[in-house]
Amino acid sequence: MKKEFDPRRLDVRAFAEEAGRLAGEDRLGNHTRLMTETQGRGADAPLVWSAQGELRNPHHVRPEIWLRLQARTALALTCQRCMQPVGVEVEVDRPFRFVEDESIAMAQDDSSEEDLLALSRSFDLMELIEDELLMDMPVAPRHEVCPMPVNLAVADEDFESDAPERENPFALLQGMKTRKPG
Q: Which residues 6+ apart lie within 8 Å of 16 measured at CB?
């Protein structure tokens, strides 16, 4: 009989031992940090996710505990060119290996190619999903073609023509310069 797993309090070891699968669809509005990035836009947008547990080398003294996470959503971010909302698809598909505790994860992190997390009996999978989507967001989101013309000038063209003519500060010194008798 398959166990029921709660994504907010996931027993990762049991999930991997059962080769558990979880999937769901959530509203973006239920994820505070993602909503902060969208400035409150798109709260009803779907966030689709799935997770699968796996126990590798199950007959070994210390079998490896793995979790594959997949998640995707569309975020209404701010275009860095025109400062208008831009829809950005964000998608994550990543495996994680779980180790006994945080100190082991830190010690093995530099030499390991995979992402390492500390094993927990009440792991918050939804928090991991939000973390991964936040890390996958573009640093400077932009439209391919902005819906409004973008003013790329750094100063008003008429600014220089309206300025009064300024005298060269060294012109006065030039006039004071004495000539050597020849």
A: 53, 54, 55, 65, 66, 67, 98
Question: Could you tell me the strand order of the sheet in which 46-56 lies?
Answer: 21-27, 46-56, 64-78, 85-99, 115-118
Tokens 């049991």, residue located: 14
pTM: 0.75
Residue 116's pLDDT is 83
**Residue 83 backbone class (left: φ over 0; alpha: ψ -120 to 50; beta: rest):** left
Task: Give the chain's end-to-end CA distance (angstroms, integer).
Answer: 112
Per domain, the residue ranges of the chain are 12-149
Distances (CA, A) of 27 to 43, 49, 52, 54: 7, 11, 21, 27
- Mean pLDDT, the chain, as a whole number? 86
Angle at alpha carbon of residue 46, lines to 43 and 48, rounded to 5°: 140
